[in-house]
Amino acid sequence: MRRRVPLAWRILCHDPRRLALSVGGITFAVLIIFAEVGFLNGLYDGQVEVLDKIDGDAFILSRVKFSLAVDMPFPRRRIEQALACDSVVSAAPLWIAGGALWRNPADRSLHRMRVLGIDPGASPSADPEVTARLEELTRPDTVLVDRRSRSYLGPREPGVVTEVSRRRFRGVGTFDLGTDLVFNGTLVTSDRSFLEIASDADASPPRLERVELGVLKLRPGRDPARALEEVRAILPRDVVVLSREELVERELTFWKVNTPIGAMFGLGALMGFVVGIFICFQVLATEVTDQVRQLATLRAIGHEDGRLLRLVLQQAVILALFGFAAGLLLSELLYGWLDGVTGIHMRLTVGRASVVFGLALVMCAVSGCLAARKALAADPAELF
Amino acid sequence: MTVPFAWRNLTQNRARTLVAAAGMSFTIVLAFVQMGFHAALMRAATSLQDRLDFDVILVSPEYVYTRSPGTIPFARVKQAPSVEGVASAVPFYAKLGHWRHPESGMRREVMVLGFRPEDAPFLLPELRQSAPLLAVPDTILVDRVTRPDYGPHPDGMVGELDWRRVTVAGHYTLGLGFVVYGCVATSDETWSRVTGISLDRATFGLVKVAPGADPARVARRLEAALPGDVRVLTRAALEAHERDYWSTSSSFGLIFGSGVLVALLTTAIISYQVLATDIANRVREYATLKALGYRPGSVSLVVLRQGAILAAAAWLASVPVATVLGDLTGRATQLPVAMTVPRALVVLVWTLAIAAIAGFVATRKLRAADPAELFG
Amino acid sequence: MSEPVVRARSLRHTFGAGETSKVVLQEVNLEVSAGEIVILTGPSGSGKTTLLTLVGALRSVQEGSLAVLGRELSGLAPREMIAVRRGIGFVFQAHNLFDALSAHENVRMALELHDLAEPEVHERARAILERVGLGHRVHYKPAALSGGQRQRVAIARALVNRPRLVLADEPTAALDEKAGREVVTLFQELARAGTTVLMVTHDSRVLDVADRIVNMVDGRLASDVRARESLRICELLKACPVFAPLVAAELAEIAQRMTREVHPSGATIVRQGEVGDRFYVVAEGSVDVLVAKDGARTLVSRQGPGGFFGEAALLTGQPRNATVEATTEVTLYSLSKEYFQAALESSATFKEQLLDVFFQRR
After folding, report:
1. Total number of domains constituting chain C
2. C163, C198, C225 — which closes off a domain?
3. Would you say residue A195 lies in a domain?
4. Which residues, 6 or more positions from B76, have their beta carbon under 8 angstroms from its beta carbon?
């Protein structure tokens, strides 16, 4: 069994302070990438977050409603029509309005909030905190407030009294949803209160006969695709029926294709990537330069070029591993902090972490190759 | 010692200097890009209001920002000219609607602007010239900066705005950036038909003051004269409000703001690193100077000069790259991320400051070192 | 004689191109045999370092031929050059050790190149470090070693693979008295065991153990003195009355030009009647001088160490007047006719002495 001297490892660990700085630099780059990736995904996720809080297998929406963020309702009748289908166990309406005016109870500033209106008797909510408060919502002028709404919206704990769309409302509970690109806060209220809240002065008054989303629960055991087809067959063409996955997909596609967010954060991540290459290259190149005589000696002894290349690349990979590990840990903290400040759900998933890991490896490998070229310039003939 | 010394030192080893400058350049470009996005955000905040012709503006007390402006009674707009200093007051209407892509049928969000064709209260000559075309009912002018995925909108095309058929009569160039990605302008009557909102409920009252009058004073007078169902703001006040909203309230503001900070930090760290390494590589040259008998002060000057030249060179290289990048990004995203002179200068100052710090720290080390040791 | 370890023929080397080109080596011819310790000396710019790098396969041969360890280096592909380097031990002036590795690990870096099992690798590295006197510091890093100790680690690294050729550049420069002596002894042992050592040095202690001293000036071999052997020959000659009056310089010159010959017992070195072309001095063993006359051979004299023969034919120009046979294995130093004549010309006393002896013998 042949054991090789772990030269790359030893060189890196020889000066702990330098190692810390080097790893720190790479961690910095990894953090930038994590942040950009986190924002991008968080913003996209945020757009469909609300669907997670709804207990539905399929959804009815107006054909022309191009995004969950715009108010484009369909006739409530369609929901009753859907119930006629055997595969549909229950169908509940969900009203959504984007323009409720919330007045911060503390400093009296005005802000726009999204309002979700539900029928307490037929609540499509999957959120236990909301379900617990349905009874309270039946009382007039009551709302539940999203805890993660931006802080400048002011106090929102149960009992707070405030003005929403010029009417007095009382907060009777909170839930957890999160902000997105369009909305900085969300309220949940009963259908009757919704009428009052959502009457935006500069738009046509809302009517409970016009609903944004119809939430359907399908009979278990049936093939969902067939069930959807059945419902679609029953309903007229002014609405579409989509499964949960289809709706999420559709919404995400809208945000990905029609807004420059992807490009912007992608550019930011690319910047982080290139910064990482630069930092890693600096670290490795400095090291090569410091040890150029030793490297030349290796060549004089008879080591092949490949040995030197391997040495530099091994160091690059080790740095990538450490930098990523540190970056991962710090990102947890970073995500937590950003989550709290912006209300965006910054989620560290295995998939995203893997992507960043891949980028970190490539980043260090590229700079490793560049630095290796320097190593190969170590001329053994110069040693004499 | 004259400047050429520092200069010649640098040009001596072109390759090394170039690599150092390139590294710094890159991070400077990064800073420019992030600042561009942030600036685009700030610019977009008042992109509409900037192009409207007014000195004082009447807005709803419930005005949150451009996308949520609330309404004011038309009566107040009629009342305004009665206040001293007011030359004219015209109503302006703005609401978010949706435009149907003529081919795919997909709908997209647009800002629908409405005004009396004879008023055309814009600072854009093109719009003012084309305004009379809007006298024809159900005609619109389309903003050229509307994103391409809204579909084609050639002159004469009949499209669907909200639920109403309208004809494209012409174009103008505005661009609302982050606020909304598409924009059309119509006459007030068409606007009312499209949105279904009565002309009694205007969005803004655009007030122009008499020549020589102070807008701030006129604003105060209007505030006093008009009841509480309108707010009166000067242009500056409105801008401040909008910017504040975008920087603090929107997620974007936070993200881009921090993006700029991170970019400037990265520039600082890497530039410092590059300069420190460069100086360290030239230690022998400085040692030679010291050994030759030059005073430490003179040597320090050379170091600082070199750092400054390197920083300036890096900045100089990054400006065209960032400008081109800004143009491309701007075209791709339809956002105003193009380079501006103030931004370029701010970054120059920042870079030179970093160079100065790096040079200062290095010279302190050099002072301490013994020339003999340096030759080691 | 076995194949020389290093053979350079018409070796030329130029640095730079066009206007700034400098010819560093011109027409270098050199042969180094196994077990020789050869010193390269010369002023800076003389090309000795370049020669060293060429022999070490660290630079490509431009013009001429250079065979090292049996392989022709001229025109060799880089991969093969690397293979040649593995058979050579390099000792540089700077130790060039990895600060991050212990002495043991630094030595191992050289062992990595050969397919050896782990226990063997470990042991060999340890053993060579022991041999250079660092057995108690095997796991220390360079920072914890003195300058001399570091150099010894470097030497250990160079020798651990038991190379047949060692190239060194001022190996003892950084060492103190004691350490330096040890290294010199080490090189001696290596040479005795058959390793060839080619080094650049100014250390007088090494000069003492050197077999040859090659002096280079302006890219040429100015002189190639068989140092030790020369010394021996000089001593030999000095003991010989004929040569006694010669001064050291003259002796050295003569010694320089002498060629070593070894003949087995019973061999005929000079045959009566042949053309005489060489002059002989006996270093070891003994020879019989026999004159044949009328079919019978008479023993005229027996020459042992310090004795000489063959001068008659060179002085008179006539064919050999006797036959000389080796009675034991004999080591002779012979001088060619022209150098013999030159020696005669250069020293009147020598000529006198020789003529005296010559006539005496007659």
Report:
1. 2
2. C225
3. yes
4. B58, B205, B226, B227, B229, B230
Per-block mean pLDDT, blocks of 10 residues, chain B (376 long): 62 71 84 86 87 94 90 93 92 93 86 93 92 93 90 91 92 88 94 92 94 92 92 94 85 81 83 77 74 76 82 89 86 78 90 86 72 55
Nearest residue on chain A to B109, judged by CA atoms?
Answer: A70
Looking at the structure, tell me whether residues A294 and A204 fall in a common domain. no
Cβ atoms of C168 and C200 within 8 Å: the answer is: yes
Is chain B touching chain C, with at least 3 CB–CB pairs below 8 Å? no
* Same-domain check for residues A152 and A269: no
Q: Is residue C1 part of a domain?
A: no
The per-residue b/e assignment along B35-59, b for 16 or more CB within 10 angstroms, e otherwise, is: bbbbbbbbbbbbbbbebbbbbbbbb
* Cα torsion through A251, A253, A255, A257, rounded to 10: -150
Total number of domains constituting chain A: 2
Is the separation of the CB atoms in C30 and C221 below 8 Å? yes
Same domain, C161 and C269: no
Residue A242 lies in a domain: no
List CB contacts (< 8 A) between B37 and chain A.
Answer: 264
Of A179, A201, A341, the CB nearest to B71: A201
ipTM entry: 0.78
Contact C312, C358 (CB under 8 A): yes
* Same-domain check for residues C208 and C232: no
Residues C212 and C236 in one domain: no
Residue B215 phi, psi dihedral angles, 5° rounding: -55, -40
In a domain, A247, yes or no: no
pLDDT digits (tens, 9 = 90+) for C320-358: 888 999 999 998 888 888 888 887 777 777 777 777 777
Are both A90 and A213 inside the same structural domain?
Answer: yes
Q: 């579409």: which residue's tokens?
A: A240
For residues C237 and C137, state if they share a domain. no
DSSP β-ladder status, C6-15 and B72-73: unpaired
Query: Are residue A12 and residue A112 in the same domain, yes or no?
Result: no
What type of residue is C328? T
User: The domain that contains C330 carries what CATH number?
Assistant: 2.60.120.10
Identify from B59, B246, B255, B261 which residue to disrupt to test chain A contact, counting A C-beta atoms within 10 A and taking the largest count. B255
Output the CA–CA distances (angstroms, integers) from residue C213 to B191, C40, C229, in the order listed. Answer: 106, 6, 11
A147 in the same domain as A20: no
Q: Does residue C234 share a domain with residue C216?
A: no
- Residue A31 belongs to what domain range? 7-47+260-383
Contact A120, A137 (CB under 8 A): yes
Same domain, C134 and C256: no
Indicate the pairing of strand A58-62 with strand A239-243. antiparallel
Q: pLDDT tens digits, chain A, 384 residues: what are they? A: 567 889 999 999 999 998 998 999 899 999 999 999 998 898 888 889 999 899 999 999 999 898 998 888 999 999 999 998 888 999 999 999 888 889 998 888 888 889 999 998 888 888 999 999 898 899 999 999 999 888 888 888 888 998 988 889 999 999 999 888 888 899 999 998 888 887 655 556 668 889 999 999 999 888 889 999 999 999 999 999 999 999 999 999 988 888 878 888 888 888 889 888 888 988 898 889 888 999 999 999 999 999 999 999 999 999 999 999 999 999 999 999 888 888 888 889 999 999 999 999 999 999 999 999 889 988 888 888
Please choose, from the candidates A82, A109, A8, A1, the residue with its C-alpha nearest in 3D space to the C-alpha of residue A320. Answer: A8
Distance from CA of B280 to the nearest CA of A (A): 11
Query: For residue C234, what are the domain limits?
Result: 228-361
Residues on chain C bordering chain A, Cβ-to-Cβ distance under 8 angstroms: 49, 52-53, 56, 58-59, 79, 82-83, 85-86, 88, 90, 92-94, 96-101, 105, 108-110, 112-113, 115-118, 121, 157, 169, 200
